[in-house]
Specification:
Elements: E1 5-9, H1 13-22, E2 28-33, E3 46-49, H2 55-62, E4 67-70, H3 77-85, H4 94-101, H5 103-112, E5 120-123, H6 126-135, E6 141-145, E7 155-158, H7 161-165, E8 168-169, E9 172-173, E10 179-183, E11 187-197, E12 203-205, E13 209-214, E14 217-223, H8 230-247, E15 251-262, E16 265-274, H9 284-287, H10 292-300, E17 314-321, H11 332-338, E18 343-346, E19 356-364, H12 367-382
Parallel strand pairs: 1-2, 1-4, 2-3
Antiparallel strand pairs: 5-10, 6-7, 6-10, 8-9, 11-12, 11-13, 11-15, 13-14, 14-17, 15-16, 17-19, 18-19
Bound molecules: adenosine-5'-diphosphate.
Length: about 375
């Protein structure tokens, strides 16, 4: 067998779908998963169950892998450096990945290279948060743990010194990691600019998308972002390509953006970076010539990248959350019969209320229709529509 072995750290749905994209290429996958039941562990043949925070586990796992890539950003940076020192290609490498792991490092570096960010500063206690607020527009202020947050966990909007005080104890952050304060950006909507970059420096940019959030979690993604001017769309793509290049990213990079409208002038501010396939790129599975997963795999193997262009004028992705009714499969009958063009992607997770268990993609010429079909399917699968 001459086909390379891709080592994937993390057994979530992103690993599952990256594996799926590697199958037509005949690639072999090895997975490091927390449990044998994780989303990707259910489908990958070669699974090592272990803790990614343990260096010896990582070293054992890396044996026989031609390259290591990730489903999440939580592997300690120093372990990645140790793997590199052992001669194992880690993609993205630790020097790039640290910007997706640590929001403080990310803000400092982006500011250095002239990428627009919210006003920010690491804060050491409630008085410091008050000082930060007074230096700008005052409260509210957004506080974030620099590491370990996801889906809005680790993000707080505080309106007073008392509220800020709840995050600190005896001059220390209760979360055990530094706290970053940010001005609360008055944004019009959230966008994402997704790009993929390979070690030999080739890069592709997907159309800029709108990410519609509900309760701090991405609910729906519309590709391309409706009504976005060509100028702003180009700016967002250029910004994401520049970040990928300057930070030395290999693989998929999602740049989450706020679209602002200060004094009637549209603008962009970076929220955060993800260096792996991303929820805002799931639409590409059915809506682009080459999906984010296929291009991520190509990039980590340093193969030429595939065409990122859309296949249809509009593609909409809606996340499917679990509802009170656990038997989602019984909803397939209705969804498939109603919409033969609907694409369902399930992650093999137990259905629990509010848990992200899959997504659907719809595409077509008419945005209102495409959007309605995605909304209907996601709601029906959740069990919130009874027809
Ligand atoms: P996570 O890492 O958990 O995804 P984010 O940094 O993306 O956290 O923040 C989650 C959500 O909080 C964002 O999608 C946005 O809606 C809101 N948010 C984060 N930072 C700011 C900010 N500086 N101003 C306004 N809203 C923000």
């Amino acid at each position: 067998m001459t086909f390379p072995v891709v080592g994937m750290v993390g057994g979530g749905q992103l690993a599952r779908m990256t594996h799926e994209a590697g199958i037509p290429l005949g690639l072999r996958f090895k997975l490091l998963s927390d449990t044998p039941q994780d989303s990707a562990a259910q489908v990958v043949g070669d699974v090592v169950v272990g803790d990614y925070r343990d260096l010896e586990t990582l070293r054992g796992f890396a044996q026989g892998c031609d390259v290591i890539t990730f489903d999440h950003e939580h592997v300690p940076t120093e372990h990645l450096r140790a793997l590199e020192a052992d001669g194992i290609p880690v993609r993205p490498g630790p020097d790039a990945l640290v910007h997706a792991q640590d929001k403080g490092v990310m803000r400092a570096r982006l500011t250095e290279i002239g990428v627009p960010c919210p006003r920010h500063r690491i804060v050491t206690g409630p008085e410091d948060v008050v000082r930060f607020a007074e230096e700008g527009e005052g409260f509210p202020v957004v506080l974030k743990t620099v590491r370990g947050g996801y889906d809005g966990k680790g993000v707080w909007i505080v309106r007073s010194a008392e509220e800020a005080g709840e995050l600190f104890l005896d001059g220390q952050s209760r979360a055990g990691v530094p706290i970053l304060a940010e001005e609360k950006v008055d944004f019009v909507r959230e966008l994402a600019a997704n790009v993929v970059r390979s070690p030999h420096g080739q890069a592709v940019a997907y159309p800029v998308v709108e990410s519609v959030q509900a309760d701090g979690v991405c609910d729906m993604v519309i590709a391309p972002a409706p009504g976005l001017s060509e100028e702003l769309s180009f700016q967002a793509q250029e910004l994401a390509l520049r970040v990928a290049k300057e930070l030395g990213v290999v693989g998929h990079l999602a740049v989450e953006l706020f679209e602002t409208n200060v004094g009637g002038t549209p603008g962009l501010v970076v929220n955060e970076l993800a260096m792996r396939p991303h929820n805002s790129g799931h639409w590409t599975q059915d809506g682009a010539v080459t999906s984010q997963f296929a291009n991520h795999v190509r990039a980590v193997l340093d193969l030429p990248l595939g065409d990122p262009r859309p296949r249809a004028p509009w593609t909409v992705m809606a996340n499917v959350l679990g509802g009170d009714y656990p038997d989602m499969y019984s909803a397939y009958l209705h969804c498939m019969a109603r919409d033969p063009q609907l694409k369902i992607h399930m992650y093999g997770k137990d259905v629990k209320p509010g848990r992200k268990v899959g997504h659907v993609n719809t595409y077509g010429d008419d945005l209102a229709d495409v959007r309605e079909r995605a909304r209907h399917a996601a709601d029906y699968l959740r069990g919130t529509i009874v027809e």
